[in-house]
Amino acid sequence: MIDALPPLREVVTRHGLDAKKTLGQNFLFDLNLTGRIARAAGPFDDTVVVEIGPGPGGLTRALLAQGAKVVAIERDARCLPALEEIAQHYPGRLTVVEGDALAIDVADLARAHGADGKARICANLPYNVATALLTRWIEAEPWPSVFDRYVLMFQKEVALRIVATPKNRADYGRLAVLCGWRTKARLLFDVSPSAFTPPPKVTSSVVELVPNPTPLACDPRALSRVAQAAFGQRRKMLRQSLKSLGVDASALLAQAGLEETRRAEEIDVAGFVALANAFSAR
To answer: Using CA of residue 136, residue 123, residue 110, residue 19, what is the dihedral sign?
Structure first.
């Protein structure tokens, strides 16, 4: 037991919190696991931690127990009474914001709750919006953001796409390019389906992303567009796949210093940045 609060299973039963597939919910009841995730995101020293989709608060309790000040964004109103019980147990340490994380500027939220140049995001992300959330955070301006680290859980197949390099051709794509451009990403550990209620059909993984304060200069929207175009037809040569951008692909590649016969999976992050800068200049 990490605190004097009731066991999570009891809380879920009392509040009728069955996990909703439509919200991408899979609750974590394993205290050893939530503690391990919280430790991976620490140490905290009153660091402001933004958590997305806390549900009944398993990870929330682990973060609070290890000294974090937590701002939790929860879309499911059914979970709010359970989270309020945790807030009462940790006076002044937990703020619950009801809303959709995709519609909230998390950096502004962290600053509004006392983050002074140091905040973190730690979450078991709802699977149905996990990639969209990460992409939004990586593309955010200005950069670096207020967050010094992101410790996040994804389906393992998504995690592998985040940390991939051209050496991992099957997983390397737009997400890897964006994350490799602005962060140093690494897979920390896998999580068995049995750790969740209900258990998903796939293994999950916890990923750490540490922001690079000085990434190569580039417009994130341009980088996202050229990567999307290139990987949209990943088996074709770039001179063909980049035609979807509506520009002269051969001229674009020449300006970026890339060979026309290369394929997207052969281009490293620096190459994609050169391509994005050439695209922005046209």
So the answer is: positive
- Model pTM above 0.90: yes
Contact 198, 144 (CB under 8 A): no
105 by Cβ neighbours in 10 Å (0-12 / 13-18 / 19+) ranks as exposed
Sign of CA dihedral 129, 134, 140, 142: positive
| pLDDT of 276 higher than 80 | yes
Q: Taking 70 as the threshold, does the pLDDT of residue 117 lie above it?
A: no
Q: How many Å apart are CA 230 and CA 249, to the nearest integer?
A: 11
Contact 147, 119 (CB under 8 A): yes
d(CA 185, CA 268): 15
- Identify the pLDDT of residue 157: 97
What distance in Å separates the CA atoms of residue 204 and residue 196, rounded to the nearest whole number? Answer: 10
